Amino acid sequence: MDLNQPVLSVARLPSITFQHTQTVGEAIASLKIREPGDDILYFYVIDSSDRLIGVVPVRRLLLSRSDSRIGEIMIHDLISIPSTASLLEASEMLLEKRLLALPIVDSGGIFRGIIDISIFSDEMPSLVRKHEVDSAFQLIGVHVSLGRNVSPLRSFKDRFPWLLSNITGGIICAIIAGMYESLIGFVTLLALFIPVVLALSESVSMQSMTLTLQTLSRGPHQWSLLFNAVKRELFAAILLGLASGLAVGLISYIWKKQAPASIAIGASIALAMVTACILGVLIPGAVRAFRRDPGIASGPIVLALADIATLIFFFNLAGWLLG
């Protein structure tokens, strides 16, 4: 199958559509008369001008009161694809939104047909792998689509703003380290373990962010989902932080026999990993709440904040324990 061909070339017209003025009872009665031959995934609602205005899931139709209007039970905020789109774009949208079918509309909103997941049955394994690659690149602030015939200037405009968060975070981290220059000079062991502390906090923040993005991709933004994710990741982060902090603290003590510095290293790792884990959950949720793509925006922001929080914990604990 040529995934670059227009989506209309393989679209099909649904055997049944509903008018928003119909009642649920009338809609169900029409189903019995027409006997649709196709598998019904969703019922689409149009107005008198054939413009697509909503969608009714099968379950909602069957469970609604028979005297309710279709316009009252339909979902208004539907997802559609333009008639000018390609099959590749349709497949990506189906995967991203986790839908079984997509309605197709022209520039005037006229319902032109539907395309369902069965069209891509042969290509689906490769499409799933491609979608996973796209998601991996988005975690670091890059969308793979930027590589498709995009000018260098457009690529720069799309990517540089997110890199600014890394630059800002790096400068702030340098300033924080400069504030504790005398402490680092007094206890060189601290400087030796800065890369380890930063690497652990960055790793756990990215792990939490990846799991949160998977949760957010399953449906509309809900604060309850985010709250449950915070609880789940918090307990996991405490265990990970304690285990990692204990391991690195013991290694540093066995190596240099400096107990206060080793305790500072281990404790800062534990606190930093818990903080980084929470950031990995909250930042994608906050970005999604502002209707931005959390997959692209969250990665650089989470890493920058995790680094800053880690160094603050690291040097303050070390300064307190070492007097």
Distinctive features:
CBS-domain; 323 residues; elongated; 2 domains; 8% strand; three-stranded mixed sheet; Tetracycline Repressor, domain 2; mainly alpha
Describe the structure.
With 323 residues, this protein is mainly alpha-helical. The chain has two domains: 7-122, CBS-domain (Roll), CATH 3.10.580.10; 138-321, Tetracycline Repressor, domain 2, CATH 1.10.357.20. It has eleven helices and six strands. The chain has a three-stranded mixed β-sheet. A three-stranded mixed β-sheet has the order 4-5-6. A hairpin with a 5-residue loop joins strand 5 (101-105) and strand 6. Helix 8 runs antiparallel to helix 9 (223-256). The longest helix has 34 residues, at 223-256. It is elongated, with a radius of gyration of 27 Å. The model is unreliable at 123-147 (pLDDT under 50).
CATH architecture classification name of the largest domain: Orthogonal Bundle
Terminal Cα span = 70 Å
* Strand percent estimate: 5-15%
How many strands? Answer: 6
Shape: elongated
CATH superfamily of the largest domain: SLC41 divalent cation transporters, integral membrane domain
CATH topology of the largest domain: Tetracycline Repressor, domain 2
Could you tell me the mean pLDDT? 79
Number of domains: 2
CATH class of the largest domain: Mainly Alpha
Unreliable stretches: 123-147
